[in-house]
């Protein structure tokens, strides 16, 4: 078994070397429509172009490249982390068991079935799937790859920020989705190391906002876990998660967005940029479009669009709902 690592900029640079050949760099695109709306210089980091459709491949690849080849791994996920582990393990040769809630996106489940993994649908929520994955790890002695509570995962996710700063120096504001906090921790550690003055804003779905509540309370606390289009961000937190103290240091603020705002953002990205983005990937833009983030005029802003894996039926419903609202005649005043 490999030794745990400290999470720091050096670990992120090492992770970049480990994931080479599995993870591909993704585009950073200037958004003229968003720049005009915000009065800022707004860029979109298109991590949805990653081969598995999300950033999760980065962390999974870093873990698997550091493990001996005979180690059996187990992971739980609403879909994207499992896809990352499935894709990376197929290339590294590790045996992998993936536990996914039965309620996960059909698109993600269908994609997982294409890989040579032991796929198990268990429970109705992320928390139930995680409990089963942890049980399997304990019973069989398998290595549990947490979607967020693992230094190697966090370091892998941080490589996304390395790409941003290589392509676009002097970023002033970074807007990132927050679930368990692995992505925000990794990119935040790198960003603050490069420029301690950079403003990092985390965005979470209001329907399932465990990390936002933990940051307010200073510890992990129970919160409602409601249904949300941002299913990849939903679920509770491990009580000892290392992401909480990291985010306490690197996040300047956290905002929560409702389902209507997430739908609006998904629709906007399709209309303005012809991009299909899942709810979890759209939450940073949802916060911007709904006016929850201020003091942006004249700033250089990067929005991380971290995933595209949305079921066709869900995406069509979102587009139809928002388009219908836009076309509905307003009552005369």
UniProtKB/TrEMBL annotation:
Gene3D superfamilies from the UniProt entry: 3.40.50.1100
UniProt keyword Nucleotide-binding present: no
Enzyme Commission code: 4.3.1.19
Pfam families with a match to the protein in the record: PALP
Cofactor requirements of the protein: pyridoxal 5'-phosphate
The reaction(s) this protein catalyses: L-threonine = 2-oxobutanoate + NH4(+)
Domain Tryptophan synthase beta chain-like PALP: 22-307
GO molecular function, one term: pyridoxal phosphate binding
GO terms for biological process, alphabetical: isoleucine biosynthetic process; L-serine catabolic process; L-threonine catabolic process
Keyword annotations from UniProtKB, A to Z: Lyase, Pyridoxal phosphate
Family: Belongs to the serine/threonine dehydratase family.
Function, as annotated: Catalyzes the anaerobic formation of alpha-ketobutyrate and ammonia from threonine in a two-step reaction. The first step involved a dehydration of threonine and a production of enamine intermediates (aminocrotonate), which tautomerizes to its imine form (iminobutyrate). Both intermediates are unstable and short-lived. The second step is the nonenzymatic hydrolysis of the enamine/imine intermediates to form 2-ketobutyrate and free ammonia. In the low water environment of the cell, the second step is accelerated by RidA.
PANTHER family: L-THREONINE DEHYDRATASE CATABOLIC TDCB, THREONINE DEHYDRATASE, MITOCHONDRIAL-RELATED
Protein name per UniProt: threonine ammonia-lyase
Phylogenetic placement of the source organism: Bacteria, Bacillati, Chloroflexota, Chloroflexia, Chloroflexales
């Amino acid at each position: 078994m490999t030794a745990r690592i400290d999470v720091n900029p050096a670990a992120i640079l090492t992770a970049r070397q480990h994931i080479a050949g599995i993870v591909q760099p993704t585009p950073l695109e200037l958004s003229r429509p968003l720049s005009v709306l915000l009065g800022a210089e707004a860029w979109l980091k298109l991590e949805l172009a990653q081969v598995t459709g999300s950033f999760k491949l980065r962390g999974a690849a870093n873990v698997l490249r550091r493990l001996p080849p005979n180690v059996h791994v187990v992971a739980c996920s609403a879909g994207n982390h499992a896809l990352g582990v499935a894709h990376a393990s197929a290339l590294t040769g590790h045996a992998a068991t993936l536990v996914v809630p039965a309620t996960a996106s059909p698109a993600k489940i269908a994609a997982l079935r294409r890989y040579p993994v032991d796929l198990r649908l268990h429970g109705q929520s992320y928390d139930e799937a995680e409990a089963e994955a942890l049980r399997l790890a304990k019973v069989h002695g398998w290595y549990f790859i947490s979607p967020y509570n693992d230094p190697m995962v966090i370091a892998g996710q941080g490589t996304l920020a390395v790409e941003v700063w290589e392509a676009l120096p002097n970023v002033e504001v970074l807007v990132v989705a927050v679930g368990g906090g692995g992505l925000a921790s990794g990119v935040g550690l790198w960003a603050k190391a490069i420029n301690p003055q950079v403003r990092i804003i985390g965005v979470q779905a209001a329907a399932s906002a465990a990390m936002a509540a933990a940051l307010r309370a200073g510890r992990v606390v129970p919160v409602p876990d409601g249904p949300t289009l941002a299913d990849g961000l939903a679920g509770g937190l491990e009580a000892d998660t290392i992401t909480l103290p990291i985010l306490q240091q690197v996040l300047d603020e956290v905002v929560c967005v409702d389902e209507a705002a997430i739908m609006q953002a998904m629709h906007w990205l399709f209309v303005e940029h012809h991009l299909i983005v899942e709810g979890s990937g759209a939450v940073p833009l949802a916060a911007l479009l709904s006016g929850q983030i201020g003091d942006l005029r004249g700033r250089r802003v990067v929005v991380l669009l971290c995933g595209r894996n949305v079921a066709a039926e869900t995406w069509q419903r979102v587009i139809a709902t928002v388009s219908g609202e836009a076309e509905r005649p307003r009552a005369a005043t």
